[in-house]
Amino acid sequence: MVETLNETVNLVEIEASRLRDFLKRLDEAAWSQDSSCEGWSVADVAAHLSAGANSWAASIGRAVNGDSGPPAGQTPLAAGERGSEVINQSAISYRQEAGARLMENFSAGYDVLRQSLAQLKEKDWDKPCYHRRGPMPIRDFVALRVQELAVHGWDIRWGIDKSAELGEESLGLLAGRVPRWLRTAFMPGLDLPVPVRYRFDIAGPVAINQDVMVTGREFQIETQAKGEADTVFGCGTGNYILLIYGRLDVDQASHDGRLNITGSMEQAVNFNAWFKGF
Fold first, then answer.
1. Are 98 and 205 contained in the same domain?
2. Does the residue 175 lie in any domain?
3. What is the CATH number of the domain that holds 52?
4. Which of 95, 183, 191, 198 could share a disulfide with 216, CB 3.0–4.6 Å?
Protein backbone atom coordinates (compact mmCIF):
# COMPACT_ATOMS: atom_id res chain seq x y z
CA MET A 1 0.00 0.00 0.00
CA VAL A 2 1.43 3.38 -1.07
CA GLU A 3 0.14 6.33 0.93
CA THR A 4 -0.52 9.69 -0.67
CA LEU A 5 1.03 12.88 0.65
CA ASN A 6 -2.11 13.79 2.60
CA GLU A 7 -2.51 10.27 4.02
CA THR A 8 1.07 10.12 5.28
CA VAL A 9 0.94 13.61 6.77
CA ASN A 10 -2.34 12.70 8.45
CA LEU A 11 -0.72 9.63 10.03
CA VAL A 12 1.99 11.83 11.56
CA GLU A 13 -0.75 13.93 13.16
CA ILE A 14 -2.69 10.86 14.38
CA GLU A 15 0.37 9.27 16.00
CA ALA A 16 1.66 12.53 17.49
CA SER A 17 -1.76 13.40 18.92
CA ARG A 18 -2.25 9.91 20.36
CA LEU A 19 1.09 10.08 22.11
CA ARG A 20 0.62 13.67 23.25
CA ASP A 21 -2.69 12.75 24.89
CA PHE A 22 -1.09 9.76 26.61
CA LEU A 23 1.89 11.74 27.90
CA LYS A 24 -0.32 14.49 29.31
CA ARG A 25 -1.92 11.96 31.67
CA LEU A 26 1.35 10.74 33.18
CA ASP A 27 2.43 11.62 36.70
CA GLU A 28 6.04 12.21 37.73
CA ALA A 29 6.63 8.57 38.68
CA ALA A 30 5.40 7.33 35.30
CA TRP A 31 7.90 9.49 33.39
CA SER A 32 10.75 7.67 35.14
CA GLN A 33 9.43 4.17 34.31
CA ASP A 34 11.54 1.99 32.01
CA SER A 35 10.36 1.97 28.41
CA SER A 36 10.78 -1.07 26.19
CA CYS A 37 14.00 0.51 24.83
CA GLU A 38 16.81 -0.88 26.95
CA GLY A 39 18.38 1.83 29.09
CA TRP A 40 15.76 4.44 28.20
CA SER A 41 13.08 5.76 30.51
CA VAL A 42 9.69 6.90 29.26
CA ALA A 43 11.02 10.47 29.49
CA ASP A 44 14.12 9.57 27.43
CA VAL A 45 12.00 8.18 24.58
CA ALA A 46 9.70 11.21 24.71
CA ALA A 47 12.78 13.44 24.55
CA HIS A 48 14.07 11.56 21.50
CA LEU A 49 10.74 12.05 19.72
CA SER A 50 10.53 15.70 20.78
CA ALA A 51 13.99 16.52 19.44
CA GLY A 52 13.16 14.61 16.27
CA ALA A 53 10.15 16.81 15.54
CA ASN A 54 12.34 19.91 15.34
CA SER A 55 15.15 18.30 13.36
CA TRP A 56 12.68 16.68 10.94
CA ALA A 57 10.97 20.02 10.30
CA ALA A 58 14.33 21.69 9.65
CA SER A 59 15.48 18.93 7.26
CA ILE A 60 12.22 19.06 5.32
CA GLY A 61 12.51 22.84 5.03
CA ARG A 62 16.02 22.55 3.62
CA ALA A 63 14.99 19.74 1.26
CA VAL A 64 12.15 21.79 -0.22
CA ASN A 65 14.74 24.47 -1.02
CA GLY A 66 17.07 21.95 -2.67
CA ASP A 67 19.46 21.25 0.22
CA SER A 68 19.84 17.56 1.12
CA GLY A 69 23.16 17.94 2.92
CA PRO A 70 23.72 17.46 6.66
CA PRO A 71 23.07 20.35 9.02
CA ALA A 72 26.06 22.01 10.67
CA GLY A 73 27.86 19.71 13.08
CA GLN A 74 26.35 16.46 11.75
CA THR A 75 27.93 13.77 9.60
CA PRO A 76 26.22 10.79 7.91
CA LEU A 77 26.67 7.33 9.39
CA ALA A 78 29.33 5.16 7.76
CA ALA A 79 28.22 1.99 5.98
CA GLY A 80 27.25 -0.63 8.57
CA GLU A 81 27.49 1.83 11.47
CA ARG A 82 24.68 1.74 14.00
CA GLY A 83 23.69 5.12 15.39
CA SER A 84 22.21 3.85 18.66
CA GLU A 85 24.96 5.13 20.95
CA VAL A 86 24.86 8.68 19.60
CA ILE A 87 21.06 8.70 19.67
CA ASN A 88 21.02 7.42 23.24
CA GLN A 89 23.24 10.18 24.54
CA SER A 90 21.51 12.95 22.61
CA ALA A 91 18.08 11.84 23.91
CA ILE A 92 19.27 11.77 27.50
CA SER A 93 20.95 15.17 27.12
CA TYR A 94 17.79 16.65 25.61
CA ARG A 95 15.69 15.23 28.44
CA GLN A 96 18.03 16.63 31.10
CA GLU A 97 18.09 20.02 29.41
CA ALA A 98 14.30 20.18 28.98
CA GLY A 99 13.52 19.13 32.56
CA ALA A 100 9.96 20.06 33.49
CA ARG A 101 9.42 21.59 30.01
CA LEU A 102 9.63 18.23 28.23
CA MET A 103 5.88 17.94 27.64
CA GLU A 104 5.72 21.56 26.52
CA ASN A 105 8.64 20.98 24.14
CA PHE A 106 7.03 17.86 22.71
CA SER A 107 3.80 19.72 21.91
CA ALA A 108 5.63 22.73 20.48
CA GLY A 109 7.91 20.55 18.35
CA TYR A 110 5.02 18.74 16.70
CA ASP A 111 3.19 22.02 16.15
CA VAL A 112 6.24 23.20 14.18
CA LEU A 113 6.44 19.92 12.27
CA ARG A 114 2.71 20.08 11.47
CA GLN A 115 3.17 23.55 9.99
CA SER A 116 6.15 22.35 7.94
CA LEU A 117 4.22 19.35 6.60
CA ALA A 118 1.18 21.49 5.77
CA GLN A 119 3.30 23.51 3.35
CA LEU A 120 4.42 20.48 1.32
CA LYS A 121 3.19 20.15 -2.25
CA GLU A 122 3.04 17.04 -4.41
CA LYS A 123 5.99 18.40 -6.41
CA ASP A 124 8.10 18.28 -3.21
CA TRP A 125 7.36 14.63 -2.50
CA ASP A 126 10.34 13.18 -4.39
CA LYS A 127 12.91 15.84 -3.46
CA PRO A 128 15.92 14.35 -1.61
CA CYS A 129 16.03 15.03 2.12
CA TYR A 130 18.94 14.55 4.50
CA HIS A 131 19.01 11.51 6.76
CA ARG A 132 22.02 10.23 8.65
CA ARG A 133 21.93 7.02 6.56
CA GLY A 134 21.89 9.00 3.33
CA PRO A 135 19.47 11.27 1.45
CA MET A 136 15.97 9.89 0.86
CA PRO A 137 12.87 11.30 -0.85
CA ILE A 138 10.74 13.51 1.37
CA ARG A 139 7.95 10.90 1.01
CA ASP A 140 10.15 8.29 2.75
CA PHE A 141 11.39 10.80 5.30
CA VAL A 142 7.84 11.66 6.40
CA ALA A 143 6.89 7.96 6.47
CA LEU A 144 9.90 7.36 8.71
CA ARG A 145 8.50 9.92 11.18
CA VAL A 146 5.25 7.91 11.29
CA GLN A 147 7.34 4.83 12.05
CA GLU A 148 9.25 6.62 14.80
CA LEU A 149 6.08 7.91 16.43
CA ALA A 150 4.17 4.63 16.17
CA VAL A 151 6.93 2.29 17.38
CA HIS A 152 8.46 4.59 19.99
CA GLY A 153 4.97 5.53 21.12
CA TRP A 154 4.45 1.84 21.81
CA ASP A 155 7.80 1.73 23.63
CA ILE A 156 6.49 4.43 25.95
CA ARG A 157 3.04 2.91 26.49
CA TRP A 158 4.57 -0.51 27.16
CA GLY A 159 6.53 1.06 30.02
CA ILE A 160 3.20 1.80 31.70
CA ASP A 161 1.00 -1.00 30.31
CA LYS A 162 2.51 -4.33 29.19
CA SER A 163 -0.62 -5.10 27.14
CA ALA A 164 -0.11 -2.00 24.93
CA GLU A 165 -0.80 -2.40 21.21
CA LEU A 166 0.09 -0.41 18.12
CA GLY A 167 -2.60 1.86 16.72
CA GLU A 168 -4.34 0.33 13.72
CA GLU A 169 -4.18 3.42 11.49
CA SER A 170 -0.45 3.15 10.70
CA LEU A 171 -0.17 -0.63 10.30
CA GLY A 172 -0.35 -0.53 6.50
CA LEU A 173 2.47 2.00 6.26
CA LEU A 174 4.61 0.12 8.80
CA ALA A 175 4.08 -3.19 6.99
CA GLY A 176 5.18 -1.54 3.75
CA ARG A 177 8.42 -0.44 5.40
CA VAL A 178 9.36 -3.92 6.65
CA PRO A 179 11.86 -4.75 3.85
CA ARG A 180 13.70 -1.47 4.43
CA TRP A 181 13.73 -2.04 8.20
CA LEU A 182 15.02 -5.62 7.91
CA ARG A 183 17.93 -4.46 5.75
CA THR A 184 18.89 -1.97 8.45
CA ALA A 185 18.34 -4.30 11.40
CA PHE A 186 19.95 -7.50 10.05
CA MET A 187 22.98 -8.74 12.01
CA PRO A 188 24.97 -11.21 9.88
CA GLY A 189 26.36 -14.25 11.66
CA LEU A 190 28.19 -17.45 10.83
CA ASP A 191 27.14 -19.38 7.76
CA LEU A 192 24.37 -21.86 8.47
CA PRO A 193 24.62 -25.47 7.21
CA VAL A 194 21.26 -24.92 5.53
CA PRO A 195 19.13 -21.77 5.23
CA VAL A 196 16.45 -21.12 7.83
CA ARG A 197 13.04 -20.20 6.50
CA TYR A 198 10.74 -18.07 8.66
CA ARG A 199 7.11 -17.73 7.60
CA PHE A 200 4.71 -14.99 8.61
CA ASP A 201 1.05 -15.94 8.36
CA ILE A 202 -0.76 -12.75 9.27
CA ALA A 203 -4.53 -12.65 8.75
CA GLY A 204 -5.17 -9.01 9.57
CA PRO A 205 -6.06 -6.27 9.92
CA VAL A 206 -3.33 -6.01 7.23
CA ALA A 207 -2.96 -9.50 5.71
CA ILE A 208 0.63 -10.66 5.14
CA ASN A 209 1.92 -13.95 3.72
CA GLN A 210 5.69 -13.85 3.34
CA ASP A 211 8.86 -15.78 4.09
CA VAL A 212 12.19 -14.48 5.36
CA MET A 213 15.00 -16.88 4.51
CA VAL A 214 18.27 -16.45 6.43
CA THR A 215 21.53 -18.00 5.24
CA GLY A 216 23.69 -16.54 7.99
CA ARG A 217 25.56 -13.92 6.01
CA GLU A 218 22.46 -12.58 4.27
CA PHE A 219 18.70 -12.94 3.97
CA GLN A 220 15.99 -12.60 1.40
CA ILE A 221 12.26 -11.89 1.53
CA GLU A 222 9.79 -13.89 -0.52
CA THR A 223 6.43 -12.18 -0.68
CA GLN A 224 4.52 -15.30 -1.78
CA ALA A 225 5.26 -17.87 0.92
CA LYS A 226 5.14 -21.49 -0.23
CA GLY A 227 6.56 -24.92 0.61
CA GLU A 228 7.82 -25.92 4.04
CA ALA A 229 9.07 -23.43 6.61
CA ASP A 230 11.26 -24.08 9.66
CA THR A 231 9.18 -21.74 11.82
CA VAL A 232 5.79 -20.15 11.27
CA PHE A 233 4.75 -17.04 13.17
CA GLY A 234 1.03 -16.45 13.45
CA CYS A 235 -0.31 -13.22 14.97
CA GLY A 236 -2.13 -9.98 14.21
CA THR A 237 -0.44 -7.30 12.13
CA GLY A 238 0.46 -5.20 15.18
CA ASN A 239 2.42 -7.98 16.86
CA TYR A 240 4.03 -8.88 13.51
CA ILE A 241 5.32 -5.30 13.30
CA LEU A 242 6.53 -5.39 16.92
CA LEU A 243 8.42 -8.65 16.26
CA ILE A 244 9.97 -7.40 13.03
CA TYR A 245 10.98 -4.13 14.68
CA GLY A 246 12.73 -5.96 17.52
CA ARG A 247 10.18 -5.12 20.21
CA LEU A 248 9.04 -8.66 21.09
CA ASP A 249 11.16 -11.29 22.78
CA VAL A 250 9.99 -14.47 21.05
CA ASP A 251 9.92 -16.60 24.19
CA GLN A 252 8.01 -14.03 26.23
CA ALA A 253 5.65 -13.08 23.41
CA SER A 254 4.76 -16.73 22.88
CA HIS A 255 4.04 -17.12 26.59
CA ASP A 256 1.96 -13.92 26.61
CA GLY A 257 -0.11 -15.01 23.61
CA ARG A 258 1.16 -12.29 21.27
CA LEU A 259 2.72 -14.92 18.97
CA ASN A 260 1.45 -18.33 17.89
CA ILE A 261 4.53 -20.31 16.85
CA THR A 262 4.60 -23.62 15.00
CA GLY A 263 7.68 -25.53 13.87
CA SER A 264 11.10 -25.05 15.46
CA MET A 265 10.99 -22.97 18.63
CA GLU A 266 14.80 -22.88 18.63
CA GLN A 267 14.85 -21.18 15.25
CA ALA A 268 11.99 -18.92 16.31
CA VAL A 269 14.09 -17.63 19.20
CA ASN A 270 17.02 -17.11 16.83
CA PHE A 271 14.97 -14.56 14.87
CA ASN A 272 15.66 -12.10 17.70
CA ALA A 273 19.38 -12.59 17.17
CA TRP A 274 19.28 -12.06 13.41
CA PHE A 275 17.13 -8.94 13.44
CA LYS A 276 17.85 -6.42 16.16
CA GLY A 277 15.75 -3.46 17.23
CA PHE A 278 17.29 -0.05 17.83
1. no
2. no
3. 1.20.120.450
4. 191
pLDDT tens-digit map of 20-56: 999 999 999 999 999 999 889 999 999 999 999 999 9
Over residues 225-267, the pLDDT tens digits come to 778 999 999 999 999 999 999 999 999 999 999 999 999 999 9
Domain carrying residue 250: 183-274
In sequence order, what are the beta bridge partners of 87?
none
The pTM of this model reads: 0.92
Question: Per the domain annotation, does 188 fall within a domain?
Answer: yes
| Number of compact structural domains in the chain | 2
